[in-house]
User: Fold this.
Amino acid sequence: MTDEKIWEFYEEMNEIVYVVDMDSNEMVYMNRKAREIYGINSEEELKKKKCYELLAGSFSPCAVCSNQKLRPGYFLEEVNYDPVIKKKLALKKTMIEEDGKRYRFDLAVDIGSGGWQAGESENNEAMINEGLRISLAAPTSEQSISALFEYLGQSLGGDRVYLFEEMEGGTFNNTYEWCARRISPQKEYLQGIPFKVVSMWYQRFQQGENVIIKNLESIREEDPEVYEYLKPQNIQSLVVSPLISEKKIIGFYGVDNPPEKYLNHITTIIQIWGHFIISLLRRRNLVRRLEEMCFQDQLTGIGNRHAMHEYINEVDSEKSIGIVYCDVMGLKKMNDAEGHQEGDQLLIRASMCLKRQFEKYALFRVGGDEFLALCPQIEEEELKKRIEALRADMQKANAVMAIGYVWHSDGKEDIDHLIKQADERMYEDKRVWYGREAEGLHRQIH
Assistant:
């Protein structure tokens, strides 16, 4: 993408033209028209700018990106509302490959304003429809929520859009977040928030009201719990709306620091979107439940064989890996003597031992009495220590397992072959165990 004649051709066009490195997301080129509209004063200012930062005003990559739809020699045509420049654009996009690199070429024509303005119901409706269109274009409900929050934040001019869900025990976790450019993400710090922090908000929610804070200092005395949480986040104002499913409040979502003159109108907008978000959360929960059924062993709660195969496909072949293969001893004997319910309890105790000693790693039940731990990026000594701890733990839990393990300095060795090696070593350990059992029985007889 270095031919100066190409740039000269596009420079004087009255359409918006820009080029993005598809692998790094860095802006490569903007013509004069694009620079004027997006406020870029020089080529130097353009360097190292990320496309999502400049074109979407976002802290992180776009929730829904058209890159995956592009291929060389084919133009993707779209009509989108750009909330950064408050314009509706007709776009033509394609992929250009050169010197082993992939570039996205976008040509956009301004087809008029279509933005959201306070008090104009027609534009409010247009904004809602556009948000729904963008959200529904995402392949999953998770991405739909992220795409909607991105669009909300850009269109409403807020610093941050977020969703809190109520967890077991009555605490709240920040589960989704969009941040504007130069705004620091807060999600990782906002987990396990006690109910007392938002108890006054819930009183408003239960009366069918949203929470509007126009000036944070105004609540310093009347709601100190909330004040202490919001102040370190540089929040001056916000609008928060409850999420209600089947007449029960399951959480809330909101916008931080929107333009003051739009606060009351934003309340109506996010109230309407709340119903759609609820439907996305329901769909997400259904998918998660189906995934659990497909990839989780229902008795022990760890992964099954399907989950193991999926996981193996994602293992980084450049990193070390440890594999631990276990077989629960005496399961058939217990099932025959005491019933399958006691046998199930033995399997659960064995899986709990593995969970305690390999909590950071991937665990799978790969057969009736067989378990597997896959431990990427583990040092050999660390693997041995965990195995010794596992042996001690399973003795205390009365859930003895035969153990075979393999460690490899990188994952370039075929993982299925390494699993087979660990399985063979497990059988060696099993033979030793049965030998000791037979020897003990022999001594008792004599």
